[in-house]
């Protein structure tokens, strides 16, 4: 067997310098990551309070232990099966999923994915920093009598965001290393947490009909399945290509990459969600919220592990979402560098954290956010998967970069850079999804027809694909015709 290359990207990669690539195509010589690196990223980045809080949300809806567990686990399995194949976009195109989707939406139409990616990542970045900051400040309050003041929380949020920004700026190599370290640390913390609260976990804890978020069991259970289960994997629809573009399709099969992505997603999401459900049952305090309730109920010896969870878990998750946001904003605004884009989105996310902490109701805001973004992301993902099936997931790498290089033409130019059937189908699927949302703040007419059940994941995807197939039924060719590529006047080519 020959010598296997360095599993981290690029023979010239330097830990002391920011990653040089934005959304340009990764050269084959630098595509040295392996499928197991994908598992490390997805597990290490997700074993933190961000996803632990989603387990608590299921209990906060009034569900008992087993109902909350089945809703979150079933939703995660469904979502992972749907999202994992999107890892092929980055693997086969050499760029991130947003730019790769230009093969189906057009080189300008792929801005839909970039905007969705920025919104998804911004929201999850805010939840991550909020939950991690809460854990750090609340733990220090008990350990060293640090006052739980607004100033303390603001400083904690800012420091976490700054550290995550640094990791994201230095790029993929740092993210892999960070999450390789985070995974075993967070696994130990979760095991210690189960030991700390084992006597308080009531495995027979029933659901509370008087507290059902949507008034009855099945609508509430399905709300939990979508918002705390399916939404987890769906949040990665545009992220997987950020990492798989560094995997060589000549050395690793698509099957191994999809399998590793699915495995990492399930393990990385189910474990913290289950921990969140179990500890929420043990420490549930509707007035304090999850993190504060956990800290106040924890034995003194478990405060340091909570502090570690708040810091390490938040850095792992916020690092990958900031990295993704920087890439997506770089794709939306090609004049900005990836580093400048990353810093800009980090500042925006911190603003949302402050609003979530000091202005909005965090629980209701998180639920509404994940339902709306799931409704927008699902039809895009479903149409992209349909396009991959039609074309065998083959891409023309140079033609995907036309917009980034400020040129016209190419195989994916379609109509002025937009594939109108795909764009229209996405809009229809998103509208149907939004009308299918059911939460404590809004119930759409389609959800109302379904007895208050949130069916947005299923209806948005089905409507988007059905509309796409209908609009392209007489299209003949399954790929856009090749056309001459021209540069805009005075526009230099951009990597």
TrEMBL record:
Keywords on record: Membrane, Transmembrane, Transmembrane helix, Transport
Topology with respect to the bilayer: Multi-pass membrane protein
Transmembrane region(s): 38-59, 65-91, 111-131, 151-170, 177-197, 217-239, 260-282, 302-327, 339-360, 366-390, 411-435, 455-473
Pfam families: Transp_cyt_pur (PF02133)
A GO CC term attached to the entry: plasma membrane
Subcellular location(s) per record: Membrane
Keyword Transmembrane helix on entry: yes
Ranges for region Disordered: 1-20
Source organism superkingdom: Bacteria
One GO MF term attached to the UniProt entry: transmembrane transporter activity
Cross-referenced InterPro entries: Flag_MotA_CS (IPR000540), Pur-cyt_permease (IPR001248), Pur-cyt_permease_Fcy2/21/22 (IPR026030)
Record family assignment: Belongs to the purine-cytosine permease (2.A.39) family.
Stated name of the protein: Cytosine permease
Source organism (scientific name): Yinghuangia soli
Lineage: Bacteria, Bacillati, Actinomycetota, Actinomycetes, Kitasatosporales
């Amino acid at each position: 067997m020959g010598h296997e290359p360095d599993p981290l990207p690029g023979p010239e990669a330097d830990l002391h310098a920011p990653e040089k690539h934005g959304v340009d195509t990764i050269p084959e010589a630098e595509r040295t990551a392996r499928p197991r690196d994908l598992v490390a990223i997805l597990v290490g980045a997700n074993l933190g309070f961000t996803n632990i809080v989603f387990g608590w949300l299921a209990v906060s809806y009034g569900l008992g232990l087993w109902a909350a567990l089945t809703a979150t686990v079933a939703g995660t399995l469904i979502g992972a099966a749907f999202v994992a194949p999107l890892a092929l976009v980055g693997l086969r195109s050499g760029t991130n999923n947003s730019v790769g989707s230009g093969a189906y939406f057009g080189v300008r139409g792929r801005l839909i994915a970039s905007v969705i990616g920025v919104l998804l990542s911004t929201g999850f970045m805010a939840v991550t920093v909020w939950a991690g900051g809460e854990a750090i400040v609340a733990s220090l309050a008990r350990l060293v009598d640090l006052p739980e003041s607004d100033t303390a929380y603001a400083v904690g949020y800012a420091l976490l965001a700054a550290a995550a920004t640094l990791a994201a700026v230095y790029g993929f190599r740092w993210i892999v290393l960070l999450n390789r370290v985070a995974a075993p640390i967070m696994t130990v913390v979760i095991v210690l947490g189960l030991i700390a609260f084992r006597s308080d976990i009531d495995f027979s804890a029933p659901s509370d009909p008087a507290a059902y978020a949507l008034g009855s069991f099945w609508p509430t259970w399905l709300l939990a399945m979508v918002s705390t289960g399916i939404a987890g994997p769906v949040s990665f629809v545009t992220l997987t290509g950020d990492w798989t573009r560094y995997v060589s399709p000549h050395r690793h099969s698509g099957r191994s990459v999809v399998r590793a992505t699915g495995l990492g997603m399930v393990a990385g999401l189910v474990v913290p969600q289950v921990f969140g459900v179990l500890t929420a049952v043990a420490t549930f305090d509707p007035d304090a919220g999850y993190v504060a309730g956990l800290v106040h109920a924890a034995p003194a010896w478990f405060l340091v592990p909570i502090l570690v969870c708040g810091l390490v878990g938040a850095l792992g998750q916020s690092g990958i979402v900031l990295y993704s946001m920087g890439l997506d904003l770089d794709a939306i605004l090609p004049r900005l560098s990836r580093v400048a884009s990353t810093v800009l989105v980090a500042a925006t996310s911190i603003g949302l954290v402050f609003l979530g902490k000091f202005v909005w109701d965090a629980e209701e805001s998180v639920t509404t956010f994940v339902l709306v973004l799931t409704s927008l992301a699902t039809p895009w993902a479903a149409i992209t998967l349909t396009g991959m099936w039609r074309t065998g997931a083959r891409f023309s790498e140079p033609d995907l970069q036309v917009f980034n290089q400020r040129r016209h033409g190419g195989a994916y130019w379609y109509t002025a850079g937009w594939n109108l059937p795909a764009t229209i189908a996405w809009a229809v699927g998103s509208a149907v999804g939004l009308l299918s949302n059911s939460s404590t703040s809004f119930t759409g007419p389609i959800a109302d027809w379904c007895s208050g059940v949130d069916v947005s994941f299923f209806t948005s995807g089905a409507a988007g694909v059905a509309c796409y197939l209908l609009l392209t039924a007489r299209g003949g060719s399954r790929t856009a015709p090749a056309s001459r590529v021209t540069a805009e006047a005075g526009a230099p080519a951009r990597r």
